[in-house]
Amino acid sequence: MLPLSSCLHSCICFYAVLLLVALLILYPRFVKMRRYRNQAAEADIPPGSCGLPLIGETIQFMAAMNNGRGFYDFVRARRLRYGNCFKTNILGLPQVFVSSTESARKILNNESGKFTKRYIKSIAELVGDQSLLCASHGHHKLIRGCLSYLFSTSSVSVFIKQFDELVVKSLGSWQDGDKIVVLHQATEITFKAMCRMLMSLENEPELQMLQEDITHVCEAMLAFPIRLPWTRFYKGLKARKRIMSSLDLIMTERRRCSHGNQKDFMQCLLVEDEKAGSDETYRMTDTEIKDNILTMIIAGQDTTASAITWMVKYLGENQDVLDTLRAEQLHRAEKMSPGQFLTLEDLAEMPYASKVVKESLRMASVVPWFPRLALQDCEIEGFKIKKGWNVNVDATSIHLDPNQYNEPNKFNPSRFNVSPTIFQIRFHFFSFVFPSCCK
Q: What sign does the CA torsion over 302, 308, 313, 317 have?
């Protein structure tokens, strides 16, 4: 008869072996079942790759910016691989890109209240969290109301004259040079125009210092957010501090001297600020004023300069369009006095020029996509989008969609001869038809 301890030991060994055999049999089935469940769960979300842990596909995104084709090449390659709705991960944040007109309408109109604006955190650090780009939906409406003066008829009329004056002056200086870099010249013109309109800044040394800092901020917006002294992001943050200090000095001087003769955007906001408490109208804080002046300089300078550059390129490649445009401009010039600058009314008499601008923006898509944040779980293109995911409307793809435009890669301003309401219904063209959605 075996001792009790020996029997117990044998029993334990038996059950251990039995358990091991069971695990060997059941484990592959468990793994297969779990894989099936994961695949079933992921089948409902957009296709794509989330890349490496923590950083996602950030390295590929940054590499695309330096490959000569630009960062949109990152989006284009994945759209061709996965379709009109795909997911990726940039800087550790889930990103979904959508390129169908119907989904774009739903997202940008936001009738269901499921989306809000969303920009990368590093951009908010550079332009300021009180900027229109980064403000919450409710705060955005308040700030936009304060900025409405900038887009009033009187303000736009003054700006058109100032801009035309700067262009004419620059064209005169080009006669002495043998090579013109259009992007550089356009950037300088638009920068000076924005500074003059926003805060009447025309002092050349001050403009030069400010433009250098603005350039650092713009470069940092497309850089990896690493705070080391030699990085573009760090230099951009330092440049932002200098810009804020400069704006502080200008605002302090305006208040101290009561420069009522300055009829610019900053003065308008400061005058409104002095009325604080007299009614229930929202007044912008100094931080909001500074953040949004910086934002408007960057937006007005970069996007406008890029649009001008692309337009020059397209006109150079399409002689027939250039001839038609020149004829319209010469006809208008015959009706103007020598030394007279353009007015808002003059622009209304240039229908073909307007079509050239629209077609240039359609083909170039200066703003390639519009970012939004999903406020709740929702569905797009039959795929599930989780709360907190970033959803980007791919404007470039929509503007070049052959299902929406005949010969989309052909520069043809005459395609805008049709009634604008057709574009409004189809939700094709973001830059002109839906400005309130795209801000």
A: positive
Torsion of the alpha carbons at 102, 103, 106 and 108, rounded to the nearest 10: -110
- The CATH class of 147-371 is mainly alpha
Give how far Cα 263 sits from Cα of 198, 273, 284, 296, 366, Å: 9, 15, 18, 17, 31
Tell me the Ramachandran region of residue 337: left when phi exceeds 0, alpha when psi lies from -120 to 50, beta otherwise: beta
Phi-psi domain of 241 (left: phi exceeds 0; alpha: psi -120 through 50; beta: other): alpha
Q: Render the burial of 182-191: b for 16+ CB within 10 Å, e for the rest.
A: eeebbbbbbb
- Total-model pTM: 0.80
pLDDT at 29: 47
Of 361, 226, 230, nearest to 304 by C-alpha is 361
For the chain, the distance separating the N- and C-terminal CA atoms, rounded to the nearest angstrom, is 89
Phi/psi of residue 422, each to 5°?
-65, -40
Contact indicator for 79, 368 with CB cutoff of 8 Å: no
Strand partners, 88: 95
Q: List the chain residues with pLDDT less than 70.
A: 1-43, 68, 137, 258-262, 273-281, 419-439
Report domain extents, the chain.
147-371
Helix (H) or strand (E) holding 379: strand 378-380
**Which pLDDT score is estimated for 271?**
80
Any idea of the CA torsion for 109, 111, 115, 117, to the nearest 10 degrees?
Answer: 40
Query: 3-class DSSP state for residue 392?
Result: strand
